[in-house]
Design goal:
The structure is a single chain. The chain has 14 helices and twelve strands. Strands 4-6-3-7-10 form a five-stranded parallel β-sheet. A three-stranded antiparallel β-sheet has the order 1-2-5, with no helix packed on it. Helix 11 packs parallel to helix 14. The protein is elongated and about 150 Å long.
């Protein structure tokens, strides 16, 4: 209102002098007066914002009578802007927290829960799971061969090295054990093999605590031949080892066997099996003949696949007999330049042992073998 009165007063003051002005001057003066009156009637308040502001709706031109509404709008815009900035800071903090969590040690990201910790998930290859099946023994029986042969099956994935978790590394925990396993799909079986498990007293109880549904595979062999093979391997690493007879007998003349020697003790299969049957039913343990594994690998692998509930995919077409090694090998797979045979330590020529010593060992093992046949319901004919 005051602006309008000022404009009227200005016009009345200048009107008497208008006849002295030229036409261009009148036009310019009119424009100038119009601008002054507009500014007086409509004062402009422009709220400037930086580029990229989150509240462009707050930019407006306000007339003089809208000051109160301007203050209210500014308050609302300020609150909205503060909320948006708070959300942005929170999102940034969350992202930083996630980045820190990704950098935490694996053990803290996948902490164990009792005996059944959650699986380690990988979007690329599946999950790392605790094994569904374990080859638990026996040393120098053919465990490596069984593992390599069964790994040909597309539904089987296995740890490449012996983990020794249940006999040497149990205090490391199940998460440590799980991390050693290969990634598997839901339909695949996870396996590992450690031959010393079969003769370790604590192992059956520990595996049962992990899972009572674990399937167990034991590769057995004539205990006399197995003991000689065991000695041959040890001798290759320790050339100054005492003779086989010195280690196997307390008194060879009397035929007294030293059962404290590990090479002899392992062959007492019935004794060790009794410990396993305290924790697992016999139907959950499959026995592979080490002898038949050499003469009929496809037949033995067919029974292993049946035991594991797998389709019989590994067949005789996968094997050939290597006469040099005296052992079956896997035929050359596609995209490979050579067949897959076991290492140099497999099929090694045994140390020659005195015939009388061998007969004494056979007499010693005979009652133990018969008991073992009865326990498993199968005669392995180790004579």
């Amino acid at each position: 209102m005051h602006g309008a009165m000022a404009c009227v007063l200005l016009f009345t003051r200048l009107l008497p002098f208008s006849h002295r002005l030229t036409r261009p001057s009148i036009v310019l003066l009119s424009l100038f007066l119009s601008y002054l009156c507009y500014c007086a009637l409509f004062p402009v308040y422009t709220i400037m914002h930086k580029s990229g502001d989150l509240t462009p709706s707050c930019q407006r031109i306000l007339v003089d009578g809208a000051r109160r509404r301007l203050q209210k709008s500014l308050t609302s815009c300020a609150l909205l802007l503060d909320a948006r900035l708070s959300d942005a800071r929170l999102s940034s903090a969350n992202a930083a927290s996630l980045r820190r969590s990704d950098q935490r040690p694996f053990s803290t990201l996948n902490s164990a829960r009792n005996d059944t910790p959650s699986p380690i998930i990988s979007a690329r290859f599946g999950n790392k799971k605790l094994p569904n099946a374990i080859i638990v023994g026996v040393k120098k029986g053919g465990t490596r061969a069984v593992l390599e042969f069964i790994r040909v099956h597309p539904d089987v994935r296995a740890a490449g090295t012996e983990t020794h978790f249940f006999d040497r590394n149990y205090d490391r925990g199940l998460e440590w054990y799980r991390r050693l396993m290969p990634r598997t799909l839901e339909s695949q079986i996870t396996m590992e093999k450690t031959p010393s498990y079969f003769v370790t007293k604590e192992t059956p109880r520990r595996i049962s605590a992990m899972s009572q549904n674990t399937k167990l595979i034991v590769v057995v062999r004539d205990p006399v031949t197995r003991a000689i093979s065991d000695y041959t391997q040890t001798l290759s690493k320790t050339p100054d080892l005492p003779s086989f007879q010195e280690l196997a007998f307390r008194n060879q003349c009397l035929g007294i066997i030293d059962t404290s020697w590990n090479a002899i003790r392992i062959g007492l299969y019935a004794l060790h099996l009794e410990n396993w049957l305290r924790y697992f039913p016999l139907a959950q343990i499959h026995f592979v003949s080490g002898e038949h594994l050499i003469t009929d690998p496809a037949g033995e692998l067919a029974r292993v696949q049946d035991f594991l509930g797998l389709k019989r995919i590994v067949t005789d077409k996968h094997f050939y007999f290597n006469r040099t090694k005296g052992f079956p090998c896997l035929k050359k797979p596609e995209r490979s330049a050579s067949p897959r045979c076991l290492g140099k330590s497999k099929g090694r020529t045994h140390v020659q042992i005195d015939r009388d010593a061998i007969e004494q060992l056979r007499d010693f093992y005979r009652p133990h073998n018969i008991k073992f046949y009865e326990m498993v319901g199968h005669d392995f004919r180790w004579e």
